[in-house]
Amino acid sequence: MAFNLTDYPFDQFEQMVKTTPTVILPVGIIEQHGHHLPLGVDVFNCTEPLRIGFDRINAFIAPGFHYCFSGGTLPGTMNVNPQLFGLMISDICSEFVRIGFKNVVMLLGHGGSENMAAMKESIRMLQRRDAKMKDISFVILTAGMLSETAGKYFNMEPEHDFHAGLTETSRMLYWKPELVQLDRLVEDDPEICRMMRTDQDWYETKEKKCITDLSPPPSARRFPLENEHLCQRRA
Fold first, then answer.
1. For the chain, which terminus, N or C, has the lower number of CB atoms within 10 Å?
2. CA–CA separation, 16 vs 61, rounded Å?
């Protein structure tokens, strides 16, 4: 059975952590998930499995940390700088270790390339800079890793099932059907859908016009010829 970290006096916790040295930190985000799903999908992604499996989990469940980086800017989406997010995770994990935990599991309801990179780097630096961490286990899990079916759809080719897609909608219909509004489901333009399903970071792609005219600017052409050697030395 799991234990909520919030529910016990300090002296009782001190004894319990000796026999239950594992803590799970749910990590989500407040983020748009289309017209048909609520802003808290990624919060439910990491809290509902813990609620459902509470009696089968031998660990402490910490209060969730549900502020990180999305990259989106639609109404309701909240973004926290990835570097700040990484530092917060590092400090939280360091405190878990200080109070007695030997195994720290971060359960991500929201992945995101920037989040994963910031989290992995923060944990790597924590282990590198603190010798006490060599005996501590840090585990990063995504919600998709808990389900073989979700993993199959996430990795299917050529188009994957990412944000607000089939699996997230299906989970929400199971966990919180009253929050799902299928009658409001709207798809983006087919080409945008294709690109987003192919690469979840496609929205970051930018095009920049390549300047091929390498002739010197007018100011350089006006420079006196006798000073050409000076230009070459400065360059």
1. C
2. 13
pLDDT at 233: 46
Alpha carbons 3 and 11: distance in angstroms, whole number: 15
pLDDT of residue 198: 64
pLDDT of residue 223: 46
> Cis before residue 158, ω within 30 degrees of 0?
yes
**Within the chain, which residues score under 50 in pLDDT?**
220-235
Alpha-carbon gap, residue 140 to 121, rounded angstroms: 12
Cβ distance 5 to 62 under 8 Å?
yes
What per-residue confidence (pLDDT) applies to 199? 62
**pLDDT computed for residue 72 by the predictor:** 86
How large is the greatest C-alpha to C-alpha distance in the chain, in angstroms? Answer: 86
The string of DSSP codes covering the chain is: --EEGGGS-HHHHHHHHHH--EEEEEE-----BTTTB-TTHHHHHHHHHHHHTGGG--SEEPPPB--------STT-----HHHHHHHHHHHHHHHHHTT-SEEEEEES---HHHHHHHHHHHHHHHHH-GGGGG-EEEEEEGGGG-HHHHHHHT-SSS---TTSHHHHHHHHHH-GGG--GGG-----HHHHHHHHH-TTGGG----PPP---SPPHHHHTS-GGGHHHHHHH-
pLDDT tens per residue, range 197-209: 666 665 555 555 5
Range 175-206 burial, b when 16+ CB lie within 10 A, else e:
beeeebeeeeeeeeeeeeeebbbeebeeeeee
